[in-house]
Amino acid sequence: MPHYTEMNCEEVQVEETTTKTESKNKNLGKFEKKAIYLNHGKYGYFLNHNKINYKIPEWLPVEKLDLEIASKLIEYKLRYQENKKDNESE
């Protein structure tokens, strides 16, 4: 059975701690005059550029991701989408 002690309200001090939540969005720089952001969401890390989200491949370590790699990844995915549309129309 738990043992309870009486406490005077004046003896109790409440310690308030405020923690600042750091933004999980990191601006990597600009590509085609628009910012590239590295974001962390429910399903992991992804890039956001021009209001479009781009999945980061699992084999690519996020720690090594910089503006150059991110811009190449976005450029590749944009070309892939264009080629896919061209092949569907033929």
Please explain how this structure is put together.
By secondary structure, the chain is α+β, with helices and mostly antiparallel strands. It has one domain. 26% of the residues lie in helices and 27% in strands. It has 1 helix and 4 strands; from the N terminus they run ββββα. It has a 4-stranded antiparallel beta sheet, covered by helices on one side. The longest helix is centred in the C-terminal third of the chain and has 23 residues, at 67-89.
Short description:
The protein is α+β, with helices and mostly antiparallel strands and 90 residues long.
Into which percentage range does the β-strand content fall?
A: 25-35%
What integer is the average pLDDT? 81
**Helix-and-strand structural type:** alpha+beta
Question: What does the oligomeric state look like here?
Answer: single chain
Biggest beta-sheet profile: 4 strands, antiparallel
Output the number of helix runs. 1
Q: How many beta-strand runs?
A: 4
Kindly report how far apart the N and C termini lie: 79 Å
How many distinct domains?
1
Please provide the ordered H/E string of secondary-structure elements: EEEEH
Radius of gyration: 24 Å
Shape: elongated
Helix content: 25-40%
Low-pLDDT parts are 14-21
Widest beta sheet: strand line-up: 1-2-3-4
